[in-house]
Automatic annotation (TrEMBL):
The keyword Ligase applies. PROSITE patterns: ATP_GRASP, BC, BIOTINYL_LIPOYL, CPSASE_1, CPSASE_2. It comes from Marinilabilia salmonicolor. Residues 5-447 form the Biotin carboxylation domain. Residues 578-660 form the Lipoyl-binding domain. GO terms for molecular function: ATP binding; ligase activity; metal ion binding. Residues 124-318 form the ATP-grasp domain. Keywords: ATP-binding, Biotin, Ligase, Nucleotide-binding. This is 3-methylcrotonyl-CoA carboxylase alpha subunit/geranyl-CoA carboxylase alpha subunit. It holds the Pfam family Biotin_lipoyl. It comes from the Bacteria.
Amino acid sequence: MSQRHIHKILIANRGEIASRIISTAKKMGISTVLPVTEDEAGSLPARQADEIFIFDTSNLSDTYLNAQKLIDVAIKHQADAIHPGYGFLSENAEFASAVEHAGLTWIGPAPLSVAQMGNKLEARKIAEKAGVRVTKALSGTIEEILNNQAKLHYPLLIKAAAGGGGKGMKIAQNGSELRSMLEDTSREALNYFGNATVFVEEYIENPRHIEVQVLGDQHGHILHLFERECSIQRRYQKIIEEAPSPFVKPELREKLTSDALKLCKEINYYNAGTVEFLVDDRGNHFFLEMNTRLQVEHPVTEAITGIDLVEEQIKTAMGLPLSFTNADVIMNGHAVETRIYAENALNDFSPEPGTINFIRWPEKRIARTDTFFDSSTEIQPHFDPMLAKITAWGHSREMAIKKLTASLEQTTILGVTTNLPYLREVLKTKAFNSGETTTQFTTLHKEALKRAIHPNGTDKTNLLLAGYLIWVLNFRDQNADNLFSRLGHRRWNGHYNVRFSEETFSLAVTKKMDKTLQWSVNGQPMDEIRLLSFEESGMKFIIRNQEQILSWYSLASGELMLGTGGYTYRLKPGFMLSAKSHLPESNPDAETDIVAPIPGKITSIPGHKGGTVEKGSPIVVLEAMKMENTLSAITGGVIEEILVSLNEQVKAGQLLARIQVPQLVQSHQK
């Protein structure tokens, strides 16, 4: 076949995968175009891309799910290829075909392969034809399935034929549950995938979810890059993946990889793909599905093979042959990946959108972090709540787990609830460390994990109060003549009042010696605190002979955010920001001018030109020294002009906005 050079790629995706693709494209000297919503125009991938296109809406149907729109943007920006990433339209055969019909290169498998594997029933038939074992199943109309259910053994797994990502999947334990579950799944399938067809298969209880990474070129060469285990899941979605599987021995590996390649050869598959299997406790494996795209968990395979899968995808799309064979691919060490989500593990993993005020990722020397933000950002409710993936490699599984655990300890995200504490507790369990990983893991250990991550308790409260006291003393000492005094922090005879968890605590320093504090809470002596360091990135101290690390961030509301163990806690001091303290008393225009009290960055502009405001209405939010300062109107009026833009760096004393006061206007006109 003829080779096609790629000069510019449009990435039909967002988030961390967009950043991942851009990284490899830059390495290959290929330009990138990234379509983004207005909310994400300042995101990390948007800043990394050579060009961006800003959608005029955030509706998915008009953005990342609008095939023609994406193709039009690619043509407008003179891109010659489209990389779909994962999710959205990455496994949409019609989109893949439309890309090729538009004269663009599709960075993925042939549209026919996407269609064949995209329909789960069709994929099962092809797998059987190729000699790959599948579970017993029934398909047809709901009535046909009900009439033939006696041919299968319960429990039964109900699936959408066009489905993926666990959407619509249900487990029927008996015949009385089957009809309603079939109807529910059919309805959900129609909503999610536009196809109401469902089928049922015998459910394998407590299996392992093991998948094989495949890679093929357009010259008939196909190979595997070993297996990954993805058994740790919640709501049928993976949260921890590793390569290789701790369960798979050489004999089983040979069977899994052989079957994966049989399936690929049956459909002349090329580019990257993943063949997924369920493996029972006896080592029997059954075909589950094939994903015709790059997987979220691809970093663990890259870590143990040293192969850049995105680079191979692009080269394959160009028509280049693979430059290596299976004999050249060597498995080196072990890698484990965790997916960090903005979700509440104590509330059935419900998504937790909101504002992230502060983040700290682990050191690059011990872990790889794939993410889409490196500073304060808004987590939108209409996108998947995944924030990042952290992957650690080691010479052994034990070492990889140890490094990953340390990486999660270093990671801090303040502002939204995340699953960080949950992930850390999973990594600590005896079952995980001994390789007892099945798809029922999170169910079997549900209560124990919940108890371990529950944030309440006296020790936790005292730790946070100690952190608050350290923040007060160090922040005040460093900024007594400038920002801190302006914020009006008040001290009452050496006591500091603070509210936490609906309680008010009175803190007092009883003795201070160099970096050692003796203190009390509500008059009760507490364990001595020895401060090790206090920086913008966090504080480190010893209490009860244990080293503690807390991250901190001050909000304009007067609250202090402290982060530890993956949780964000809010402590409300005995003071609030005073709007008047932001304006110089001597300024004759104090009531109409909004002035920056200190240097900083504009992080939000709630006001807009021509808008009517009342006294206390927020106009501009300024971030300085990790503190948000809301600059509000001191009087009612109309915003005459906003003189700054989002993310602009401003100087102390700089005029940011001006308010027109009706009375003043009338007096000038007389």
